[in-house]
Structure formats: C-alpha cells, structure tokens
Amino acid sequence: MVGRVDYSSVPASADLENNSNQKKYTVNRGGDKGGLVISKPLCTLMAIGALLLAILAGLVVFFLVPRGCAGDDVHPQALQKHQPVVEDGESRLQPDSEEVEERLPRDLMPTHYRIQIRPYFENYTTAGTETVTLLVEQDTDVIIFHANKIKIDRGSVRIRPADPPDANPIDIVSQEYLDGERYKLVLKTSLSKESLYYLTLDFVGELNAHLQGFYLSRYTSHSGEPRTSLSTQFSPTDARRAFPCFDEPSFKAKFVIKIARPSNMSTLSNMPVEKTDVFDTGNGAWLWDTYPETPEMPTYLVAFLVSDLVKMQSSDRLISVWARKEYVSHSSYALEVAPKVLRYFEEYFRISFPLPKIDIAAVPEFGFSAMENWGLITFRESTLLFDPLSSTVEDQRAVATVLSHEIAHQWFGNLVTPRWWNDLWLKEGFATYLEYLGVDHAQPTWKITEEFLPSEIEKAMSVDSLESSRPISFNVVNGRQIKQAFDDISYAKGACIIRMMNHFLGEDTFRNGLAKFLDQHKYGNADRDDLFRSLSEEAHLRGVLLQNETVKHIMDTWTEQAGFPVLNVVPDYEKNALRILQKRFLISNSKGDGSKWWVPISYTTSVRPDFADTKPRIWLREEPETTADVDPIGDWYLLNLNQTGYYVVNYDEKNWKSLSANIMSLPPLIRAQLISDSMDLARANQLDYSIPLTMIARMAIQDKMIMFVPTTVAFSKLKYLSDILHSTPAFGLFEEYHNAIFKGTYNLVDFDDSIEDYLTRRIRQTVLEWSCRSPESVCVHKSRYAFRKWMVDGNMILPNLRPIAYCTAIREGSEIEWDFAYQKYLEATSPTEKNVLLDALGCTKQKWLLSRYVRKLTDTNDENYSIRIQDADRVFESVAKNKEGTNIAFDFIRKNWNELLTHYGDGFNILGKMIKSVAVHMNTDFQLAELERFRDTIRPNISTTTNAFDSATETVRSNVNWLKRNYQQVDEWLKKYHNQFGYIQ
Asked: Would you place residue 638 in the very low, low, confident or very high pLDDT band (cuts 50, 70, 90)?
C-alpha cells in the first residue's frame, strides 16, 4: 500500500541476534553437485534488465510514494514533508526544514499588546481581536510577525499612526503567510522612524490537543463528572499559536489581556483580574475578565487559564495555589515552601518581586514539569501537589526543587530575559543552580546542595562526554532547533559552569555581580557578555582577577565549545611539583579535538588537608599544560575539591592507589567525586577498572553510616556495568561482587519506613532498589508479600516503599500482578501514585505484557485505556529501560513513528526522550546499524529528535566499543577477586 512500510519481511532484532546458525541469504554458484548454472551472456542481459527495472522502480517511488514513511497505519498528514498553514480557511504547505529562518526583522519594536480572546469549547477554536503598538526603529513599508495555525481576517487588518488619533489607516498592498510561521504585510507608504503605529486585526485560532499554545484538556473528576480546562504553554515559540505576535524574547512589551469564560468557570492571567463584564452568548451567560497592564515581558511568559480550579491562600499575601477541588488540600506543602524561597531570592538579589501576586496553578494536563510565566506559574499536578498518604520523599523533593527553580526564574528569565535562545542557559542554567540554594534555605536539614554532584554534574557530563555534544551557546534560527536546546546541556551544564564561577570568584563577588547585572538590565534583555561584564567589574573591584583577565576570557572557553577537559596529572614527588595537562574528555577515548579551557584548579594534600577552600590555586589559561609547585604532597594529593570545577582528574597510579587506600578518611563528597571520576575514566579506557572497583568495594564494606551521596554515586556508576554486562558471562560474577561488598548495607537497610528523616528515606530508596535485584533476597520476599497483602486484604503499602515493592512484585510476578496494578492505575486519584504505577508496570519480565503496555501509547480510541500525552515518555521509558523490553520498545517506535509524531507533536521532546531511552541496553553492532537505519528512514520526518538520535547512536557505539576494549579486563578482575569480594581492604 502506498504510504506504508511493510516490515513483515524484515526480521526483528531479536530474531537476528538469536541467529545461531548464522544463516545468510545468498545466491550460490553451480558446482559439481548440481544447481542452477547461468551462462555469461544471459547473466549480462539479466543484469542490464535488473538495472533498468531498478531505475524504473526508483522513478515510480520518487514520484508516487510520499517520503518519510516509517510505520504501519500512517496518518496521511504525517507523511507530508511540509506542515499545513491556515490561510483564509485553506491550507498551503510550509517547508519543515531545520534551516527555515523564523527570525523577524528589527525594523519594528512592539511596545504594547491589547488582546481579547474568546474560546469555543464545542469546535476547539478561539476568536480574537488584538491591537499592537509598534515603535519604528527604521523606515519600512513591510510588517512581519509570527502566526502559527491562526487564520487572520484580511479585511480586519489595519495599520494607522498613533498621532494624530484620528489619522486614516495606511493602505495595505498585500498580505501573505510566509515560511517559518510568519505573516507579512506590505504597505503602500513607509512607516517613519521613531514614530508609533497601531496594528489591529481579528483572528481565529485553535484549541489544540498537543499541550502547546492555547490548549484544551478533558478529564474526569473523582465523582466521574467530565471536566474541561483551558491552559497555555507558550515557551519557547508557541505564543504565536494563540495570537499573532512578535514571538521572540527580545521583543518585550506590555500586555492587557481580556479573556471570555462561561459563568461556571474562572480565569487567571499574569496580573490580578481588574474587572468582569457579563455578556449573553444566546447560549447562557458568559463573562469577560479584563486584566491590567503587565510590566514589559516577552510573549513566551504571557499566560492565561480558564478552569474550575480552587484557590488556597498562603500566609504570604503574594502567593496563592490553585488546584482541582479534590486536590486542593494537597497544596499545603507548596504553600509552605514557596514564600520561604521567594523571600530568600528577594534578599539574595536585593530586588523585590515586582508583580502584585503570584498564582501557582496545578494544571490537569501539562507538558513540562512547570512553567515560570510571570505572576502565573503553571505546574503539572504531580510536580506541585504533595499527599503524605501517597507521595514519596522523592515527590516531596521534586515539589521543593521545581518550585525553587520556577521562582528563581522570576528574576533570571522574567525580570531579565536572554536576548535570544542561543543563551537559553542564561536563564535555565541559573534557575537550575539557584534551585539548590532556595531549597537549602527552605529545608536546611536536607543538605540538598551536596546532591549537586549526582543530580547535575553526572547528568551534564553523561551527555557532554559524547562527541555529538554541542556548545552551551550555539546558533538557532527556528522553533525546531530552539525546542531541542531545552536539554541537559542548557540546564545541567549551565548550572555546573555557574557553580564553577561562584567558586573561582568567591560568593561575595559572585552575588554582588549578579545583583548588579539584574539591576542594570531589569525589564530588558541581556546576553552572556552582559553577565560576564558585571561579574568582571566586581572581580576587578575586589582584586579577585587581574586587570588583564576577565570573566569573559575564562567563560567563553566553557560556553562556545562543546565538552569539558580531563586533567592528567604527572607529579614530581621529590620536588613537590605537579605537571598538569588538559585535553577534551570523551567517553569514546578518541584523541579529542584540540579544545582548551581556562581551568580553575583547587587542591589539597595529605600533609595539610583542607577540603573547604575551593578557590583556585592554579590556573590552566587555555594552554595545553602547566607546571606548578605545590605544598608538600605527602601520601596523596587531590585536585578540584568537591568537584566545583566542571572537569575530571586522572592521577598517576601511585596517587590513585593511595587515595583508594584512604577513601574512608576523606569527606563523603570527595569519596563521591573520586568514585565518579575513576569510573568515568575507566569507562573511557583511560584508567584500569581495578582502581574504581577496589575503591567502591573498600567504601561499601567500611561505610557503616551509609552516606547518601557517595552511595548514590557508586550505585549510579555500577548501573552502567550492570546494564552492559547483563547478557555476558561476567554478569553472574558482577552480581556476586555487589552483593558481597554491599552485604552489610543491604542488611542495615530494612523494608521499613518508620524513620521520617529525609536523608534516611533517600538512602533507603537507593539501597532497596539494589538489594531487591536478586530474586532470592529478603527484599524481594518482603516486596512480594506486601504486594500480595495489598491485593488480597487491601493493606496499602507505605508510600516510600511503593516504588520498590510495586516494581519488584510485578517483575517477579505474572499477569495477575500486572493486571491488578494497571487497574489500580485506572482507579488512582493521586497524580504521584499514578506515576509510581506507570513506572512499575514497565518492570515485568513478561515480554508480551511489555508489548501490550507500550501499545497503549497509540490506543487512543478508548479513554480508559489511553495514556495521556504528558505521561507518554514515562511509559515508553519504563519499557525501553527494562532489559527485557528494549527490543520491544524499539520495534514499536519504528513501526509507529508517524502515528506517534502526529499524536504527540513536536513539543516537550517526548519522542526525543523515547529515542534516548532505547539506547541504554543496546550494545551490538547489529543494534547500532538498525538504529542508524531507522534514523535515516525517517529523516524527512525526524521533527525535533535530531539531537536525540545523535546522542543515542553515539551511546550505542560507545557501548559496542566498551565491550571490545574493556570487557576482558573487567571479567579478569572479577574472576581474580571472586573469592575476596567481601574482604577487599
């Protein structure tokens, strides 16, 4: 069938990997034992005929078959290489290329919007009117603005001078939609520089189902009543879906919003409602809510809701939380944390929050975790609401960190906005870094700043150690590229280099520089050079940097090139000198690309150990190496204290062994750092695995206190070995290794949740996940018993034990446990409980159940059996990251690519997350070839997953290479110490 790719003749990956007979499809030449013999002339004629047929077939395919086919039951619209744009009720095709330019000319600056929108629930549309005030920067007879899936009423479009007020409109010569989601007006006469004009128009928009722009959600209340809500998600480039606008961050303007609603619903927007007017639609009373003028802000921060959410007021007059009536009681924790964080940041930046209120809304369906809209922060319900009866300590941590992240944005992003999306890290990196400071203030006993290493540094380096990584600042020209920039490089790496700046400048210099930066650029835009200039001024004032050194000199090497360095240290123990060489660290262990950084180096030695002073005592100034005299080295030396610099360090063998021998005399954060660095270096084949495996064993055996951060890092790094060894002969020895060295840890952490301390619960969660790996373990027996009691007697499992108990019981159980859990998912009213169940359903070892589960992503006919868009990547990842489900997930996504793209759209990187997740357990040449072939097949329809495919294919390639380079040494070490695992000292 045209438009369909038939996979029936293509063997599944599992079939080919299990091809024990090494069957090949060949044409055999005839021989003495008979067979078909073809004469040479006939063979030549057949070859010519085959060539002509191939050419003919190629022409037919080229002209008749739509490009981009990659699956069964493909939606026709998804096969188009172009996306439709509404123009006067008709569709025309718009190129959907990575290179389509969407940026607007700088001739005009919008200064004010007056927007009026009425939604129509019955046909999923909106009707709107707007007036935009334009300041002319350069004489022009052309006006270009953004509009995506919006029908503009040509006859309503007017452009007239602001002065005099009764001036006649300027004649419009032509109007047309342009590629890049733009609309163009050509005027008969030019607009004059430095003059103001009013652009007025009417339009019809859509209420879409992709959670982008102005969208509609349908859901069911606890009592079974159907409900509807309307919400917005405009970041990064979707305000243009709701109203025509200049949809770029540098076009900041003031907004007056007017929203229509049914009388049984309420609205929210960036400002508090100013007045409400009644109007009669002929189908019941409706109301217009008018909101007062906002401060200057970009279009992506405009927000409005139409819903029946209920309000809870905090003790702070500024802050309210809105949620569904049945969930509003779960907002208490957010109401407790938010005011503390807000006031902390006001003091930290020395700038008061400038709006009259902050509404924090739990939206019934939401694509991101949260969105920092100025004055109206929107959240996914599971990220904001905390129910002590069903939420875990990880859920509590998520509420606190995401709240802190979004409140930090009120300054970094909202008050001062990046000029363009190439500096996305300037807001997302800062919000990620600052979230730890805000939570540390609100919850000091958590010591959450110590979790920066496992949470952010590990996340950033895992992506940044790939050759496919990108610079933190890079050029983007359209929405597709912009959406792909919302990744771990912008968020986690951004936070890491900001933390590094803090430590090489010092807290006072850093904080004063930030306050100066925000004050100078408030209500405006800035780029990284503006930030670096403010920090440099403060650094020179305080003598932190030499006058010929600037923060820009240093930080350009971190923002304008991909990756990070590994420092190789060559000591001279007799002269107490260190020769330090840098090169780019790549997990593939390739030679690198010659990148060089300004590297701040703190250090200490065993003679006078000081782990608190993280200011640099040595600098590598964008040079390949340096030599420095240091304090007496003694037994060991240590660089990059507490991993405050964004790099790894490789020591000489003597120092590694000395650090390993003294691991328990070092602070917990240093232990975590050494385990992380050594395991990454070993994975990249730059260090023998005997170093980290011995170090982890020593720590695990001797750590009777079970320190959270080093234990978490150890398990995180061992997980890679577990994943890649799973199908090898060495896996059994690896299981014996971790069971032996963590035996005491597994015995100390009981299947109990009576201690409510945050760190205790976090440790328990981490340890139980590993102790439940063995089917014969006590943890497994207790999990299955607790799950059975729930099934039979209705005895609920304690919230913090549910993720482990559910997953373990479903993994070791049968269809009975799976069906029970799925039914509980359908019945669950708590958003966090639903998440735990969705994760657990992907734990089963029954492949047919995994197949049934992942197919629910495209089963949208029955509402009871469909997965909501916001949960799609969660479900897919739970299957893909299950060793039994990788091939199932991969086969599913390549057979249903176009349907998934049509259903989930290109927002929120849902498909990109899916692609990355399938790479975890892929480690064969065949799997690599299949992944690359899939990418090439769907390239015309690759959407926003280009970077995800690059990352996934390189991850698989590195897995393949690891088995060739490192498997033997790990296998030999495990065999050598097989009888000594529990006694390594």
From this structure: very high
